[in-house]
Amino acid sequence: METDLHKALERGEFVVLYQPQVDLLTGKIMGAEALIRWQHPERGIISPATFIPLAEETSLIMQIGEWVLHTACLQNKAWQDMGLAPMVVSVNLSPRQFLQSDIVNTVRRVLEETGLQPQYLELEITESMTMDVNRTISILQELKGLGVKISLDDFGSGYSSLSYLKKFPIDKLKIDQSFVRDSTTDLNVATIVKTIIEMAHSLNLHVIAEGVETKEHLSFLQYNLCDEVQGYLFSKPLPAKEFEKQFTEIEKI
Ligand code: C2E
Ligand code: CA
Ligand code: CA
Ligand code: CA
């Protein structure tokens, strides 16, 4: 698979899907998360959970990561040029991409190349990237200096040091899907989710819940004043064309 991975970029076998992020107050789509897929000629669609860790072991993750960034920014710019309401597209950064590449210059260059205004790009980082606190803070500050938004993905799933939250210049918390899944059946988890939302708001952070699959999840999150939701209840990740078609439909709900 690793040899194939090398050729996949040249052959154009990667695609980016977009999953809507819905504002709970207005019901409008505020953004979309860009999620990569590999359309392998023999094996069919391969999940990022399978090949991203492999790519992460080699420097290939840098090229793949930049390709996703470029594709997502170009797509978002194209949507704006088509007259869709401007939204934020969020792109996942891998640990190696964040810590070892010249991520700040890459992001600056991609914004220039695509013509997307920085406020319409969000970068998702995870707690596993934040082990070197000072370095993380300085990279994040430089990225914020470009005008892009930062979100902390999978919040609660890892080391989750609450003290980081105050130190890191982030805009948004993404509550991990495992918490959302159990929030309606486990009272302790419900309390944790409620507390994460309150704490995030008191730190002036925006909160999004991912993995929202049921109406029960939705009402629980609505009741506890979560800002945004993302999950199969609204839509699976979609190819750009599908996303365009559904975009206006979902917005009317
Ligand atoms: P993630 O960043 O936590 O992304 C959320 C995952 O949850 C996505 O899986 C998404 O399709 C899935 N999901 C969305 N709604 C629901 C739901 O309601 N229920 C459930 N059970 N799952 C839902 P996906 O697309 O397979 O991606 C898996 C992981 O691969 C991502 O987790 C992310 O860590 C990584 N990944 C995906 N695309 C990229 C990329 O472009 N770059 C990097 N570095 N990593 C990526
Ligand atoms: Ca993510
Ligand atoms: Ca996540
Ligand atoms: Ca994850």
Automatic annotation (TrEMBL):
GO terms for biological process: regulation of DNA-templated transcription. Residues 1-251 form the EAL domain. Keywords: ATP-binding, Kinase, Nucleotide-binding, Phosphoprotein, Transferase, Two-component regulatory system. The keyword Phosphoprotein applies. GO terms for molecular function: ATP binding; phosphorelay sensor kinase activity. It comes from the Bacteria. This is histidine kinase. It comes from Effusibacillus dendaii. The chain holds residues 1 to 253 of 744 of the full protein.
